[in-house]
Amino acid sequence: MVGHRRTWRRVVLLGVPSLYVVLGLVHPTANPELGDETDHFVNLHIAQLLLIVGLGYVLWLLVEGVTNRAATLARALIVPFVVAYTALDAILGIAWGIAAETANDLPAADQPGAGRLIDELISGDPDPRGLILYWGAGLLWLAVALAVVAALRDTAPRGALVSMALGAAVFAIGHAPPMGPIGMGLFLLGSAWTEFRPRPAEPLTPAAGG
Amino acid sequence: MSTPLDHRTNGRDRLWQLPTPAHRLLLIGPPFALAVLTIFHPHPDENTQALADASTWFMAYHMIQLPLIGLVAISVFLLADGFGRASAWPACLGMGTFLVFFSAYDTLAGIGTGLAMRGTRGLSESQQNTVFEVVKTWPAAEPWVFWLSIVGTGGWVLALGYLTATTRAAGAPRAQWIFLGLAAFFLMLGHPAPFGTLAFGSLFIATLIHERQSSRVPGRALPNKSQPSLTE
């Protein structure tokens, strides 16, 4: 692999999950309610959009050059995962934050009505779509990550695969702390272990013209 | 003479190894489906009652559009792959940005607004008005939503603009790169009809031309990156 290409690959493979760990650590443990400050919450979920693009690229790079069926499945699942996780981020992150922010500016008498809207976005009562989106996006992440693990089963160390699979399962529960940083940290550990594992020495290439 | 470019003749260079029927379906189908769907984009008046009345279709329309955005991104990747450019950074960055930011825009402005207004049914008029006050800016005027739309569309323009330049330099038929350029241009004017229809319809025609040209010349190789023009 060409030197600068390998460097770029490693920057992405280690950088994106590391930033996701940081995002998880600064993510509030509960979504904002009426009267709470919302800027931090909205900004965090806007930033997460960039990390979702990056995470899709990380998954793509992990199976780069792998031609087995699991790798094909992983590539095919990246787009649905990105779309579903973006939808989750947009509704339960950005929309929630903006709704709370707007509601905070309403007259006190009108705020309970707006609070009901915010509750409906996630409560699943009466509309279950918020919950379906939450678990659907999480399960799609788990599916694509496990497909990556399966694709690497013949080449990556077993410990690295276990770490990635465990991390993916924990992260599927949510990106907020404590599950988010723990899950993504384990996934990062597995990815780094796979990337920096000792490899058999490549045969020497004869010099050009030699 | 211009030489058509063929996606099927140099399989070892392709990132997306698909059977020909699946390849055709994923290349041509999504732009066509999205072009047709945009004709039915709801246009409710900006008041509580109108938005509440249209909320079910408003939400359903954008729920259908969401997976189609992903499929159109795949279609563009397949088209780029046909020119050996699926890994080029403008294609990857542009489509990745479009995929995430336009999906976020669609979800927030479309599904979020529809979901919220649908939830007001059965509430008192004052409660309906309160929810309307919260969400009325989501489809366009809310600053964050506006920027999601701008960045998402920017990604589309980057990827399609790059493909326009690439196909033109590689000697593809003039109609193909013109329609790719039109696809990039029209989405800047909005995704409901008529501009969304024209944008995705133009992409559909470009993919159709590409597929037709590819199937005519089965022995052609992909253009080499160091050899941008095949007009020799």
Q: Tell me the structural class of chain B.
A: mainly alpha
How many separate structural domains of chain A?
A: 1
Give the helix proportion of chain A (percent range).
over 70%
The DSSP helix count of chain B reads: 8
Q: Total number of β-strand segments of chain B?
A: 0
Q: How many E strands of chain A?
A: 0
Low-confidence stretches of chain B: 1-12, 219-232
**What is the end-to-end distance of chain A?**
22 Å
Largest sheet of chain B: none
Give the structural class of chain A: mainly alpha
Net shape of chain A: elongated
Q: How would you explain this protein's 3D organization?
A:
- The complex is a heterodimer of chains A (210) and B (232).
- By secondary structure, chain A is mainly alpha-helical.
- Chain A has one domain (9-195).
- Chain A contains seven helices and no strands.
- Chain A has helices at residues 3-26, 39-62, 69-104, 111-123, 129-151, 158-173, 179-195.
- Chain A is elongated, with a radius of gyration of 20 Å.
- The mean pLDDT of chain A is 88.
- Chain B has 232 residues and is mostly helical.
- In chain B, helix 3 runs antiparallel to helix 4 (89-118) and helix 4 (89-118) packs antiparallel against helix 6 (143-169).
- The chains are: A mainly alpha (210), B mainly alpha (232).
Structural descriptors:
heterodimer; A: 210 residues; mainly alpha; 7 helices; elongated; B: 232 residues
Question: Can you lay out the helices and strands and say which pair or pack?
Answer:
The complex is a heterodimer of chains A (210) and B (232).
Chain A: H1 3-26, H2 39-62, H3 69-104, H4 111-123, H5 129-151, H6 158-173, H7 179-195
Chain B: H1 20-39, H2 48-53, H3 55-82, H4 89-118, H5 125-135, H6 143-169, H7 174-187, H8 195-216
In short:
With 210 residues, chain A is mainly α. Chain A has helices at 3-26, 39-62, 69-104, 111-123, 129-151, 158-173, 179-195. Chain B has one domain.
